[in-house]
Structure formats: structure tokens, C-alpha cells
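Summary for the steering committee. The consortium agreed at its last meeting that each partner would contribute one worked example illustrating the joint modelling workflow. Our contribution is presented below. We chose a case with several input lines so that the handling of multiple components could be demonstrated. No manual editing was applied between input and output; the record is shown as generated.
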Amino acid sequence: ILNVEQSPQSLHVQEGDSTNFTCSFPSSNFYALHWYRWETAKSPEALFVMTLNGDEKKKGRISATLNTKEGYSYLYIKGSQPEDSATYLCGRVKGNKLVFGAGTILRVKS
Amino acid sequence: NAGVTQTPKFRILKIGQSMTLQCTQDMNHNYMYWYRQDPGMGLKLIYYSVGAGITDKGEVPNGYNVSRSTTEDFPLRLELAAPSQTSVYFCASSLTQDTQYFGPGTRLTVL
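What follows is the complete predicted structure of the assembly.
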């Protein structure tokens, strides 16, 4: 993996479904991985900053795990709600900047 | 605490015109960034700064210039607007390489 890649590109789920998506990144010289939630017509908002291999973070129904050795992070949403509809961005710290993936667009139907 | 503010919110430019997008933060953050939102490609970094007087190019710097004379302000200048610069521009700031706080964005159309 040379760049930050996110999959799937988009996801449509029903209200109440649990879902997860993936962020893959170069594993060498790892410093930190960020997750952001980006609602349409708004600004990205930080969810998690993850630094340690095996890290697991949780905020309400959203959680994330980190594997720095194999270069991936999973974001989980339990019991999706329509208000979870957003683009979820991950970004890998590279030097003094963040390199973002293209994002996963989540749409939750009620 | 206003956080990160950007002006203007919307702007329409003609090809070849110039403009400056303003960004100000009141959190005393050292790091500031300019991104553009390209459809299907997330956020692309244009320029960033790790402190007053220091700026560096990001992934897509061509056609843009920045300056950082104070900790608070990080304006982005478009010298000769082109249709390819039609985008939504976000400014962000952070203390170091930690959580970035984004402004509300400037929607720019070049016709």
C-alpha cells in the first residue's frame, strides 16, 4: 500500500444495521491515524486519533481499531441511525501533515 | 472561542481574476492547513504551515500561494483563477500533528 485507501467507496444500510469500513495505509514509519466524520454541507469533525498498535477507541455507537503492523484500521457503527449518514475520512500522519483517503460515504435509510 | 473562521463563504470568479481566501483561528494553534474538496477524492492538501513565517507545499499547490505572518492568520491566494480551481476550500488548524479543526469552508466557482 503506497497511499491511504478506504473501502468501500459507498455503503447503503437500513436503520438499525451495524456496519464497518476499512482504512488501509502504508505500515512503515507509522505515527498516527485520524478518523473524521464529514456531513454534507458541513466541515469534517474529528472522531478519533489513534497511535498504538491494537488501539481501540469508542465514542457512543462508533468505535475504531488499529493494526499498525499490517496497515489497516476498521471503523464500526453499531445500530446505524439516519443521522450517521456522512462521509467518513481517515488520514495518516506523514511528517507535519495528514494524507487523507477518498472517504467512505455512508447512507442510512429509515 | 470562534475556532477556525473562513471568509468569504461563497464567491464566483471570472477566469484570470485573483482573490484571497481568508482563514483565522483563535486557538493559538501552531499548524494550519488549506485543503480543497475534489468530488470522489476526499480532501487534497494545498499548502500548510507549522508556524508563523513557515509554509510548505502540499499535494496540489500549483496556482496558489500562501503566507503566514501571524499565528492566527493563514490566507490563501489565487493569482489567475482557472475553472479547475472550482472547489470547496477548507482551512484547518491543529496544535501539532494531532486533531485538526476545520473551518466552515469557502465555495468557489470560476467561470
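Chain B touches chain A at residues 31, 33, 40-45, 48, 50, 56, 58-59, 90, 92, 97-105 (CB under 8 Å). Chain B has a mean pLDDT of 95.
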